[in-house]
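Good morning C.,

I know you're traveling, so I'll keep this short. The sequence:
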Amino acid sequence: MIHEQYKRYSEKNIAVALRDTPVVFIMGPRQSGKTTLIKSLITKEWSYFNLDDQSFLNSVKQDPIGFIRSLNSTNIAIDEIQRLPELLIAIKQAVDEDRKPGRFLLTGSSNALLLPQVSDSLAGRIEAISLNTLSECEIRDVKPLFLSKLINGQIPSSKDTRIKNYIIQRIVTGCFPEPLRRNTESRIKAWYKQYINSLIQKDIKEIERIDHPEKMLKLLKLTAYYSAKLVNFSELGDKLSLDNVTVKKYLGLLEQLFLLKPLSAWHTNEYKRLVKTPKLHLVDTGLICAVRDISCDYLRDHPEELGSLLESFVINELQKQAAWIDEDLLFYHYRDKDKLEVDCIIENSRGKCFAVEVKASATLTSKDFQGLKRFKEVAKGNFKLGVLLYDGDHVTSFGDGLFAVPLGALWAG
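The tokens, ready to paste straight into the viewer:
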């Protein structure tokens, strides 16, 4: 069941950080719900400002330090801080004079902390917390347990089975709050197209001077076709008539805007036959489907297209759940020179690995476990558990530490 009011599980992380950190920075894609969340957290004692207000932005630009010093409130919330990075320097000065926890609550639709002058000046004074697009657990209002169970060696299960039609609808709609409120695919697609145009015309230009803005738009659209695939910088460059350096720079800007997440290849020095090329994943399948003009009916008629979209959907969900676990986790994909692969490898701080493979079908054979079995051999003692998510109706063991699990377990409470 989908709920219209979304409980954001990152709210707890933010509240905890505000108790002992002077500056808390909520960062994530534009329209992912940052403003809604920040307004739910602050009380009347707070002063709230939004730098998306152009007239306000212009006035603060004149004297950022003076603006911060003029504020009487001890608690200040500022939306879209990336629009005026100089303000962060003023905030640093204010914090150095008074390191009271929870003084500043900021949001940003691009990672302003990547700017050298910002990251250096705020070191030790700031905690950054990601707010991704909605997770399936938040949409359904259920406690996220899949990833925590997995890394504790438990086998997740689900009462939701044979959910192909549901997952197709979720893939096409995506996880931004606004499209979830729209009733037709045409209106959902219209929102995503407007969203993309706004990003190219406004946000990207603000964080970097772009020599070829029209090619930036083409690159964003190309990534929708490359999502869940190994990145080939030369091939992308040829399609855009750009050199590899520029392609990498532009992809970096999409990553800075939280639209793109490269997934590095898992590697070990003990095994040389590994492919080291990263994969690309866009952060939302609704964005992919809008760019590629993919509808629910199209996916039902073209099941071969469903696999890569489902892979991106699952990996995005796992990374969202990772933000709510008190353990540092790293995400990779696995592929070797025999073309055996695993969609997602999750590694904890002790180097122990948990593997997740995704299949859109309801029937499985031992061949579907070839990649997981190979990874288990290569990872040796660091391998802990391997799960193949599929559209089936029960958990099945396929050998020591390998299990087929219904896809619905991903959001089972």
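Safe travels,
E.
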